[in-house]
Amino acid sequence: MLKQKFSFLLWSIWKFRNATVFRNEIFNPLTCLIRAKITNVEWRIRTRMSVDNYLSGASFPTSTPIHLVWWRSAPRGFAKLNFDGSLYNSLISGDFNVRDWTSRLLKVGAVYHNTTLILMIEARALRDSLNLSNSGRF
Predict the structure, then answer these.
(1) Are the CB atoms for 40 and 32 separated by under 8 Å?
(2) Cα separation of 27 and 70, whole Å?
(3) DSSP track, 59-84
(4) Is the dihedral of CA 14, 15, 20, 25 positive or negative?
(5) 106 contacts 121 by C-beta, under 8 angstroms
(6) Is the pLDDT of residue 67 over 70?
(7) What is the pLDDT confidence band of residue 51, given thresholds at 50, 70 and 90?
(8) Residue of 49, 103, 113 lying closest to 79 (CA atoms)
(9) Which of 60, 64, 14 is nearest to 35 (CA)?
(10) Domain coordinates in residue numbering, the chain
(11) For residue 15, which of 1, 35, 30 has the smallest C-alpha distance?
């Protein structure tokens, strides 16, 4: 468990280093340590396993099947729409892209939004792409 905590501390230091170099942010060691701890806790929660149990010899849970997901092109004669919303440090945007059955990009768009609800951002990205497709501007 100590190795994992140390890894997240190194990752946090690296992220702060990049913020200092590329965005001229001021390095704060205490904030760096707190973010490393938060990231470690989030990792443990998201992986749904106790590192302590794993280190004592328990194996990963096998009851949950793993499903790999990847992008597939649309059926012949159709277009496929992908959309997403993003929230990062109070910067909020939604984007979409539309591709035909040969994976050729037909249209792409991104827009800034004033809301902070990720569900609203993604819904607006969907709405914007559908409005564009209904207008026949592909």
Answers:
(1) no
(2) 38
(3) PPP-SSPP------PPPTT-EEEEEE
(4) negative
(5) no
(6) no
(7) very low
(8) 103
(9) 14
(10) 2-55, 79-134
(11) 35
